[in-house]
Design goal:
Keywords: Membrane, Transmembrane, Transmembrane helix. With about 280 residues, the chain is of the alpha+beta class. It has three domains: about 50-95; about 100-170, no CATH class; about 180-270, no CATH class. Helix content is about 30%, strand content about 30%. The chain has helices at about 20-25, 30-35, 55-95, 130-135, 210-215, 250-255, 255-270, and strands spanning about 100-110, 115-120, 140, 145, 150-155, 160-170, 180-190, 195-200, 220, 225, 230-235, 235-240. The strands form four sheets. The protein has a four-stranded antiparallel beta sheet with strand order 1-2-6-5. Strands 7-8-12-11 form a four-stranded antiparallel beta sheet. A hairpin with a 2-residue loop joins strand 7 (about 180-190) and strand 8. The N and C termini lie far apart (about 175 Å). The model is unreliable at about 15-20 and about 240-255 (pLDDT under 50).
Length: about 280
């Protein structure tokens, strides 16, 4: 045998199984076949163009998320800035509004209460004219009114003008609306414990469309007796008829409320039959 030449190893037959092949597990597909499992998808993509690398998918997700977040932030910021703009605009318009031509009405609403009206200047001609009127405060005779009692809008189509008016019910010592009773007439006792007194209401302002309310709310003082309200009101004649006879007051106070009410109805019925002098 020549030095440096390795002897030839005998070839192993194909049927022989090496120890290394016994320790190596069969491929997955072989295991599935052995266990009767049929694969429905290949282990590798047949079309390499359909396969997207995981890193590329992650990059697309990041870009898409960034766009969505940016869009949401832009919308929120736009709405916030628009709200600030509208609030500032609303404040500037409100500060520019002024009540002008404040004047009392010729008619009294009730005793010691008169209606006042004023025109609102500087109001924009839009759909919120009534709202601008209702939000504007005013001070009348030292009394601050947060809002008018009601607002009216006068549209003049011929002159293409729109006027907004506010109205308030003011009860601050309105002397022109302090009606009083004058020309008292004693009609005598018409029922046991009752005396009929007629009077005429003075200091009344025209028109006469609310005379009944003014009548019942006007206080009366006669012969040392005070009356918070009247028993009856008629146009031209106003009647006081409740326990005026002093000697019978104690007797009337001892009666029950039902008895007093029944007597009162009878008195009013008798008063209606008394002729005017």
């Amino acid at each position: 045998m020549t030095d440096g030449v390795k002897p030839l190893q005998p070839q192993q037959s194909s049927n022989a199984t090496s120890s290394s092949s016994l320790s190596t597990p069969p491929p997955p597909h072989t295991q599935d076949v052995e266990h009767g499992v049929s694969e429905t998808s290949p282990l590798y993509h047949r079309n390499l163009t359909d396969f997207v690398a995981p890193q590329k998918i992650t990059s697309i997700s990041i870009v898409f998320s960034t766009i969505v977040i940016f869009t949401i932030c832009t919308i929120v910021l736009t709405l916030f800035l628009h709200g600030l703009y509208e609030k500032k605009k609303h404040q500037l318009i409100r500060e520019g509004l002024v009540w002008t031509n404040l004047s009392p009405s010729s008619q009294c609403l009730r005793y010691n209460t008169q209606e006042y009206a004023a025109e609102l200047a500087g109001v924009p001609i839009d759909g919120n004219m009534r709202q601008w009127c209702e939000e504007k405060q005013i001070t009348i005779h030292g009394i601050e009114f947060k809002t008018p009692a009601y607002c009216t809008i006068d549209v003049d189509k011929s002159a293409a003008t729109v006027r907004v008016y506010g109205h308030w019910a003011v009860d601050s010592d309105e002397t022109s609306c302090k009606t009083l009773w004058e020309d008292f007439r004693d009609k005598g006792c018409v029922f046991k414990g009752f005396r009929c007194i007629e009077a005429r209401m003075g200091n009344y302002q025209l028109p006469w469309d609310n005379w009944r309310e003014m009548c019942f709310m006007t206080l009366a003082d006669y012969d040392g007796h005070h009356f918070d309200h009247l028993d009856s009101c008629e146009f031209g004649i106003f009647t006081l008829a409740w326990g005026v006879c002093p000697k019978m007051r104690r007797t009337m106070e001892m009666l029950s409320d039902d008895k007093v009410a029944a007597i009162g109805k009878e008195v009013i019925a008798k008063l209606a039959r008394i002729p005017n002098k």
